[in-house]
Amino acid sequence: MEPIYTAVVTAKGGRDGHIKSSDGVLDLDLRKPKEMGGEGGAYTNPEQLFAGAYGACYLGALGSVAKKHDIDVSEATVDVHIIFNKDDNAFALSGELHVKIPGISVEEAQTLANKAHVVCPYSKATRGSMDVKVIAE
């Protein structure tokens, strides 16, 4: 494997902490959502950040797959649901990718969505360790 880019982000304080990227572009306070016993408010959390990153990466993979089939997905969207689950005394993440591709049937969209899920680096990274459902709408 040949490295192309390395992102570096420093985290401090855990879920009620702060993150900052090495270039200073990302510089955010984090707080637990109310559903997890936190104060909520105008803060982000690790699940939102993961969902945003996953969605952006997934749409890139969808674009690559669609280009091979001469299908325009420039108006496609994906709503990424990252679910924080508790099972007995353990915690685990699961996810859902709700994919919308205007101009094609839901069946065609599901086929493309599944192909993108195979090649997306975030999907590859979570495969086998996180249940992720891909749902074309």
TrEMBL record:
<comment type="similarity">
    <text>Belongs to the OsmC/Ohr family.</text>
</comment>
<dbReference type="InterPro" id="IPR015946">
    <property type="entry name" value="KH_dom-like_a/b"/>
</dbReference>
<dbReference type="GO" id="GO:0006979">
    <property type="term" value="P:response to oxidative stress"/>
</dbReference>
<dbReference type="Pfam" id="PF02566">
    <property type="entry name" value="OsmC"/>
</dbReference>
<dbReference type="InterPro" id="IPR019953">
    <property type="entry name" value="OHR"/>
</dbReference>
<dbReference type="InterPro" id="IPR003718">
    <property type="entry name" value="OsmC/Ohr_fam"/>
</dbReference>
<protein>
    <submittedName>
        <fullName>Ohr family peroxiredoxin</fullName>
    </submittedName>
</protein>
<dbReference type="InterPro" id="IPR036102">
    <property type="entry name" value="OsmC/Ohrsf"/>
</dbReference>
